[in-house]
Automatic annotation (TrEMBL):
Mitochondrial GTPase that catalyzes the GTP-dependent ribosomal translocation step during translation elongation. During this step, the ribosome changes from the pre-translocational (PRE) to the post-translocational (POST) state as the newly formed A-site-bound peptidyl-tRNA and P-site-bound deacylated tRNA move to the P and E sites, respectively. Catalyzes the coordinated movement of the two tRNA molecules, the mRNA and conformational changes in the ribosome. Residues 29-307 form the Tr-type G domain. Belongs to the GTP-binding elongation factor family. EF-G/EF-2 subfamily. Belongs to the TRAFAC class translation factor GTPase superfamily. Classic translation factor GTPase family. EF-G/EF-2 subfamily. Pfam families: EFG_C (PF00679), EFG_III (PF14492), EFG_IV (PF03764), GTP_EFTU (PF00009), GTP_EFTU_D2 (PF03144). This is Elongation factor G, mitochondrial. One of its GO terms (biological process) is mitochondrial translational elongation. Keywords: Elongation factor, GTP-binding, Mitochondrion, Nucleotide-binding, Protein biosynthesis.
Length: 728
């Protein structure tokens, strides 16, 4: 009954607008923008689903990975996600718990899609970090934690799956402290574990919560079970001690051996959580409907509102000076587009308003390009449904219709002149895998092949497309095999284009290992206007610190005097920089090179920009072979979990794939192996591990760094490159 549904949505929207109109600006204090991030399979989707159910946003719970493909969990809106059972695309959902408005940004779990996580984290004020009570802190939890630290995202932890065999929340807490180095303490003590898991005891309020009704919607309060009293007391002292380490008021209580009132304790937990010096730990079982409502109270009580956070923008009108943003509805608008999505309603642009308000019908401007557009519609999204709203205030997350833009664009009020704010650029990793593709239908009469590629590139900065100049092939690159596979699948489903793909290729790099000098003269002085330029200096590898700072190429001018006129020095730099694009051993880009210019000479008539650029290129060619060039390959951090009986086989497989085992742990017959393996060797690994372990093993991986390739491995590449060069 689509008609009825629409009326419902319209009615909801009307109510929403009304309450908002009454509450006005004070709303920011009651707003929480949160993400839920987790290791794959720790239950993030299940938890999100429960949150939406208990907050009244959905009427029924559909289990993730259910049998009926049309009835997957609400947050996984793409059909493909349902089939793969993993969350790929983030969507923003708006809901309410008690008086608090909550925006949930669904962040993807798979490491191939970390840029999505990064983007989501950029617009969040806080997060729930979900951990499995059996798996604990896994490699991906560490990655996600590192990202949260980079963006200073305060968080609460939720230890899920207390109903599972081997559930051990105490051990997970130790891992949070040791592996993630977080100052964390339990907010709760479990009532029973595994099949006896029944509820939780709240340490601050000293009450037991149990969950009843078909979906755990009925929360009953009771006294602390007698056998748990000591444990609760122990955890309560520990909570005070941990808070005392970061909060003076609590330190005093701890030293006086006094317990503060629950309100004072809660206020301290909130202060420390927002200051990112403390992480409160909640627990339960999303699947068995235990512990989710108290977690929501925790979100309300302890995670920051937009008013608690200090953000800043770069003022493009003032040499990109960093200036503070005010979470004030009347201040000039600053909003960040953080996600584009092709929906069945057309292009949706997700934005976070940092300052001022977005109003339907107003004119907004892309602060970088100065392009002015009218804002036809503003909506709140709930997975695939939406509510129209007239205005969204500071701190809020909304979606816009009919706005052409790229993710990462900053919008401001078009009617305010000389105000050009830019939100910081987002961290985007370089793609590590490439794949040559072409449409099966060579004519591609619909033009959809090109359209799809353009769309994906705009949505996802880690997905790149280029056409190889020599082979005329279309090359797509991304963060892993699965990343690219997902796009080919989306092309087939959403754009009806079947593609033929080659073998995935690794994105190699080259670098130099020692210092080498150059002294090169570019000269063409026979007839007509001549060309003359001489450059002298040396190239050397960048230092470890420079690489740590993210530098790939450094140019230093150490000339004494003006042997090369200043206007040509930039041409010299450009010439060297261009040489970096294609290495000499296998033709892949160079990185980690420093060029130092010490001398040169020019001719009063025959010197020009081109002459110096060519001199630099010649000098580079001259020096690079002397500088010990090597091939670098991407190396991945891999974490594998397999039942004990397969450990030997799997370790053998990793050794064959040139992997280095860093660590292996054994717990309850389950081995966790941490290793580093060249990406090239990881192709097809999912098939191997499946067949080697009767589908009982699983692994995750993420890019670590480009590292030197062993000579004998590089030789094959070098030979192929030389053959290709000779052919052309
Ligand atoms: N026993 C138990 N199983 C759970 C619990 N929560 C989730 N699961 C199961 O764990 C599996 C993974 O859950 P999801 O919610 O899809 O996990 P996710 O973290 O969203 O995973 P991705 O979408 O792949 O990132 C599903 O089979 C769930 O039914 C829990 O509290 N207890
Ligand atoms: C807005 O500015 C950014 C940065 O220059 C640019 O990449 C983007 O395409 C612009 N968007 C529009 C709609 O002009
Ligand atoms: C591609 O080839 C054309 C002509 O063959 C050349 O003009 C152009 O600069 C090349 N582009 C790149 C990126 O190499
Ligand atoms: C560099 O080359 C020039 C011209 O070929 C020569 O005069 C000069 O001595 C050389 N410099 C060094 C340090 O070898």
């Amino acid at each position: 009954m689509p008609g009825q549904r629409q009326t419902e949505v319209a009615a909801l929207a009307a109510i929403g607008m009304q309450t908002r109109g009454l509450a006005g600006e004070a709303n920011s204090e009651l707003l929480r923008n949160i993400g839920i991030s987790a290791h794959i399979d720790s239950g993030k989707t299940t938890l999100t689903e429960r949150i939406l159910f208990y907050t009244g946003r959905i009427n029924a719970i559909n289990e993730v990975k259910g049998k009926d493909p049309n009835k997957g969990a609400k947050m996984d809106s793409m059909e493909l996600e349902r089939e793969k059972g993993i969350t790929i695309q983030s969507a923003a959902t708006y809901t309410q718990w008690k008086d608090t408005n909550i925006n949930i940004i669904d962040t993807p779990g798979h490491v191939d899609f970390t840029v999505e996580v990064e983007r989501a984290l950029r617009v969040l004020d806080g997060a729930i970090m979900v951990l499995c009570s059996v798996g604990g802190v896994q490699s991906q939890s560490i990655t996600v934690d590192r990202q949260m630290k980079r963006y200073n995202v305060p968080r609460v932890a939720f230890i899920n799956k207390l109903d599972r065999m081997g559930a051990n929340p105490d051990k997970v807490l130790d891992a949070i402290r040791e592996k993630l180095r977080l100052n964390a303490a339990m907010m709760q003590v479990p009532i029973g574990l595994e099949e006896n898991h029944d509820g939780i005891v709240d340490i601050v309020d000293q009450v037991a919560y149990t969950f009843h009704g078909p979906n755990g919607e009925e929360v009953r309060k009771g006294p602390i079970p007698e056998d748990l009293a000591d444990k609760v007391e122990m955890r309560r002292m520990e909570l005070l001690e941990r808070l005392g380490e970061v909060d003076e008021e609590m330190e005093e209580f701890f030293l006086m051996e006094e317990m503060p009132e629950p309100d004072a304790l809660r206020a301290a937990i909130r202060r420390a959580t927002i200051a990112n010096t403390f992480v409160p730990v909640f627990m339960g079982s999303a699947f068995k409907n235990r512990g989710v409502q108290p977690l929501l109270d925790g979100v309300e009580n302890f995670l920051p509102s937009p008013l608690d956070m200090k953000y800043s923008y770069l003022d493009l009108a003032d040499e990109e000076a960093s200036k503070p943003l005010a979470c004030d509805a009347k201040a000039p608008l600053v909003a960040l587009a953080f996600k584009l999505e092709e929906s069945r309603f057309g292009q949706l642009t997700y934005v976070r308003v940092y300052q001022g308000s977005l109003k339907r019908g107003m004119f907004i401007r892309n602060s970088t390009t100065g392009k002015r557009v009218k804002l036809p519609r503003v909506v709140r999204m709930h997975s695939e449904e939406m509510e129209d709203v007239d205005e969204v205030g500071p701190g809020e997350i909304a979606a816009l219709f009919g706005i052409e833009c790229s993710s990462g664009d900053t919008f401001c009020d078009a009617d305010i002149k000389d105000f050009n704010p830019s939100m910081l650029t987002m961290f985007v990793p370089e793609p590590v895998v490439s794949l040559a593709i072409k449409p099966k239908d060579r004519s591609d009469s619909s033009g959809n092949f090109g359209k799809a590629l353009q769309r994906f590139q705009r949505e996802d900065p880690t997905f790149r497309v280029k056409v190889d100049n020599e082979s005329k092939e279309t090359i797509i690159s991304g963060m892993g095999e699965l990343h690219l596979e997902v796009y080919l699948e989306r092309m087939r489903r959403e754009y009806k284009v079947d593609t033929i793909a080659g073998m995935p290729q690794v994105n190699y790099r080259e670098t130099i290992t020692q210092r080498a000098e150059f002294n090169y003269t570019h000269k063409k002085q026979s007839g007509g206007s001549g060309q003359f330029g001489r450059v002298e200096g040396y190239i050397e590898p960048l230092s470890e610190e420079e690489i740590q700072e993210g530098k790939e190429f450094v140019f230093l001018n150490q000339m004494i005097g003006n042997a090369i006129p200043p206007e040509y020095v930039s041409s010299v730099e450009k010439g060297f920089q261009e040489s970096m694009e294609k290495g000499v051993i296998v033709g892949h880009p160079l990185q980690g090179v420093k060029v130092v210019l010490v001398d040169g000479s020019a001719h009063s008539v025959d010197s020009n920009e081109m002459a110096f650029k060519l001199a630099a290129r010649g000098a580079f060619r001259q020096a690079v072979n002397e500088a010990g060039p090597v091939v670098l390959e991407p190396v991945m951090k891999v974490e594998i979990q397999v039942p004990e009986e397969y450990q030997g086989t799997v370790v053998g497989g990793i050794n064959r794939r040139r992997g280095t085992i860093l660590e292996s742990d054994m717990e309850d017959d389950l081995a966790t192996i941490q290793c580093e393996v060249p990406l090239k060797e990881m192709f097809g690994y999912s098939t191997e591990i499946r067949s080697a372990t009767q589908a009982k093993g699983e692994f995750t991986m993420e890019f670590k760094a480009h590292e030197a390739m062993p000579q004998h491995e590089a030789e094959e590449l070098i030979r192929k490159y030389k053959e290709a060069e000779n052919d052309s």
